[in-house]
Amino acid sequence: MSRSFARRPRGPSHSFRQRIAVRTDAARNEDSELKLFVLSFTAFFVCIYTLIF
Questions:
Q1: How far apart are CA 23 and CA 20, in angstroms?
Q2: What is the spatial distance between Cα 49 and Cα 41, in angstroms, rounded to a whole number?
Q3: Of 10, 18, 29, 48, which one is least surrounded by beta carbons within 10 A?
């Protein structure tokens, strides 16, 4: 005798936990954008410095 159960996605089930999960994803994305900006900004000044000196 076998029973089949309905499968649900394994995400946060409570509404409070769902809001926290969304915020951490958004914070991770903002962190990634900040790192990219700093890297680009630094690369720009390194290129300008090597052209001047």
A1: 5
A2: 12
A3: 10
Taking the C-alpha atoms of residue 15 and residue 20, their distance in angstroms, rounded to an integer, is 9
d(CA 37, CA 1): 59
DSSP 53: -
Say what the pLDDT of residue 15 is: 73
**pLDDT score of 31:** 82
Mean pLDDT by 10 residues, the chain (53 residues): 65 70 65 92 94 85
Per the CB < 8 A criterion, the answer to whether 11 and 19 are in contact is no
C-alpha–C-alpha distance, residues 47 and 51, integer Å: 6
